Amino acid sequence: MRSAANWLTAILSIITVGAALSLPTSAAYAGDDGNSKNVTEDEIVRALAPAPKKPLTRGLSIGPQTAPAPSATDSKLIQSVRGRSTRSLSSTEREEIALAAKDKPNIDLEITFDYNSANISAKSLPSVQALGRALTSPDLKGSTFVVAGHTDAAGGEAYNQDLSERRADSIKRYLVEKYSISATDLVTVGYGKSKLKDPNQPLAEANRRVQVVNMENKTTASK
User: Fold this and answer.
1) What is the Cα–Cα distance from 23 to 44, expressed in whole angstroms?
2) What domains does the chain contain, in order, with CATH numbers?
3) If you ran DSSP here, which 8-state letter would residue 122 be given?
4) CA 131 from chain center: how many Å?
5) pLDDT in tens, 8-56
6) How far apart are alpha carbons 191 and 165 in whole angstroms?
7) Distance (Å, rounded) from C-alpha 88 to C-alpha 212?
8) For residues 223 and 219, what is the distance between their CA atoms, to the nearest angstrom?
9) Contact (CB, 8 A) for 139 and 43
10) Residue 120 and residue 169 in contact, taking contact as beta carbons nearer than 8 Å
11) pLDDT-based confidence at 217, cuts 50/70/90?
12) Backbone angles phi, psi at 211, to 5 degrees
């Protein structure tokens, strides 16, 4: 028979294992996790391509159909922020961009970064590279895109705002350097933790994302 000491040791071991299993899986500040879903170039193109405009007459469609042109207000806003540094945008301008982007083709990318850093993690490079190929594809090349950085709710507002801006800038820099995308075609903005995708779970990985929005398609942007 086991001695009382052996039984006590066994019980303590069970308690220790149970406690370890109940701990949170990640304690990263402003969250970086190990499960990033990489998307394909085709998925990004499909998400960002303008929706076809419905023909005026049922059953009649002449020539290629494109999304309606942006409103004069939206176009003026985009022109005013093209080429601007991310940190130069005021809170009012950030909200105006968010409002204008609300009904535009967009995609959320689960791009992770090195801990407490704006360096793109190695495991997320395939997604960023797919984004670069997509934005230079014939379907999207020449459009104007918003690249918006978002964090989860961990940490203070100022810290997360700065981090989201640096991360959006990091994505833009990579796309410009590696895919020769015009810097003026990429408008970067940071929202920190102000626009959680899943507000019911403020620390969820879904909140740690980079959103890309097609603000002006290449046809309307040239007019």
Assistant:
1) 36
2) 70-214 (3.30.1330.60)
3) G
4) 11
5) 454 444 444 343 333 333 323 333 444 456 889 999 999 999 876 555 4
6) 7
7) 19
8) 7
9) no
10) no
11) low
12) -100, 135
Q: Running DSSP on this structure, what letter comes out for residue 88?
A: G
DSSP class of residue 84?
Answer: -
* Tokens standing for residue 94: 């950030």
The closest alpha carbon to 149, from 123, 114, 117, 188, belongs to: 188
CB atoms within 10 A of CB 51: 11
Q: How far apart are CA 153 and CA 201, in angstroms?
A: 9
Query: pLDDT digit string (tens) for 136-190?
Result: 999 999 899 999 999 989 999 999 999 999 999 999 999 999 999 999 999 999 9
From the list 119, 111, 148, the residue with the least C-alpha distance to 33 is 111
Query: How far is C-alpha 179 from the chain's CA centre?
Result: 18
Both tokens of 223, joined, read 């007019």
Residues in the chain: 223
| 3 state SS of 144 | strand
Amino acid letter, residue 14: I
